[in-house]
Amino acid sequence: MSGTIVRRANAEPRWLRVTLTVLGLGFLFFFLALPLVAVFAEAFAGGWGAYREALSHPEALSAIGLTIFIAVVVLPFNIAVGVAAAWAIAKFDFRGKSLLITLIDLPFAVSPVVVGLVFLLIFGAQGVFGPWLAAHDIKIVFALPGMIIVTLFITFPFVARELIPLMQAQGKDEEEAAVSLGASGWQMFFRVTLPNIKWGLLYGVILANARAMGEFGAVSVVSGHIRGETNTLPLYVEIIYNEYNAVGAFAAASVLALLALVTLVAKTLVEWKMRQETEMLETALPPEKTE
After folding, report:
1. What is the pLDDT of residues 153-182, one digit of tens each?
2. Which of 41-45, 110-114, 127-131, 286-290 has the highest mean pLDDT?
3. Residue 282 clears pLDDT 70, i.e. is over it
4. Contact, 70 vs 215, CB < 8 A?
5. What is the mean pLDDT of residues 57-83?
6. 229-255 pLDDT, tens digit each
7. How many whole angstroms separate alpha carbon 130 and alpha carbon 134?
8. pTM score > 0.85 for this model?
9. At what angle do helices 144-155 and 194-214 cross, to 10 degrees?
10. Are residues 216 and 178 in contact, defined by beta-carbon separation less than 8 angstroms?
11. What's the per-residue H, E or C state across the chain?
12. I need a surface site. Which of 44, 51, 208, 251 has the fewest CB within 10 A?
């Protein structure tokens, strides 16, 4: 009787469920699906030939190659620092732990444009290290190194933030057992820790890669917008759109949209695999005894 009363109390009216569903689907359509369709529609407005010509332009190819290159350079650093920081935070207690967590979250709290300005003040001509860099003919800002540095700053929290709760939930019993059986630090990591975190690590890498390829604000400040040299794909889209080259702009934007769709599919697959392994682990665990 009480179960029936609870179910009736929690049951929403049919009109409310329908209204909420329509509102949710409408939001997804107008703010996600419709803009995506519009990007591809505008990109192919001039036909396949115009689309192919827009993407085969030397500046477009340079922007695509530079975007991929920065992501490839940034990701190994994100993996190394993210895993190390997550391992330290989740497995050990030490003074300054809360400060380290705050520093990891810092890029989420600071505007990317502000990040670009900060590095401009540090490495720019009038910055802290500017005169020394100029004297030794070393270019950081308005060059590739500055773009890599700001992208690193923007993207490094993603791997660590995915791994910290996962490692905390797993505990450190397996690592301690491996060490007690004579495993070295690297053996423990590659045979115990890494297999347990591989899907969470891949999830963080996917998110970091998506952010690295789509970053605009910080990169825009330190790039200098040098055509064919320091324009990533998002910067290239803005420049040619401002020049009223709509087909070229939307063609380049469609590449970013495709990357976003691939990222979404990969993210969904990793989430599904993580849920599957979690369910298998819960099934394999013995049931808790109740008194």
Report:
1. 999 899 999 899 888 888 888 887 887 888
2. 110-114
3. no
4. no
5. 92
6. 889 999 999 999 898 888 889 999 998
7. 6
8. no
9. 130
10. no
11. CHHHHHHHHHCCCHHHHHHHHHHHHHHHHHHHHHHHHHHHHHHCCCHHHHHHHHHCCHHHHHHHHHHHHHHHHHHHHHHHHHHHHHHHHHHCCCCCHHHHHHHHHHHHHCCHHHHHHHHHHHHCCCCCCHHHHHHCCCCCCCCHHHHHHHHHHHHCHHHHHHHHHHHHHHCCHHHHHHHHCCCCHHHHHHHHHHHHHHHHHHHHHHHHHHHHHHCCHHHHHHHCCCCCCCCCHHHHHHHHHHCCCHHHHHHHHHHHHHHHHHHHHHHHHHHHHHHHHHHHHHHHCCCCCCC
12. 44
Burial of residue 215 (CB within 10 Å: 0-12, 13-18, 19+) is buried
What sign has the CA pseudo-torsion 29, 34, 37, 39?
Answer: negative
Q: 3-state SS string over 238-258? A: HHHHHCCCHHHHHHHHHHHHH
Lookup result for tokens 């769709």: 261
Per-residue tokens: 143: 């060059």
Q: What is the dihedral of CA 261, 263, 266, 272, to 10 degrees?
A: -90
Residue pair 59/227 in contact by the 8 Å Cβ criterion: yes
Q: What is the pLDDT of residue 182?
A: 80
- Rounded distance, CA 201 to CA 281, Å? 18
Q: 């407005």: which residue's tokens? A: 45
Token duo for residue 214: 């789509």
What's phi and psi for 46, nearest 5 deg? -95, 5
- CA proximity to 50, closest of 227, 236, 252: 252
Residue 284 confidence (pLDDT)? 59
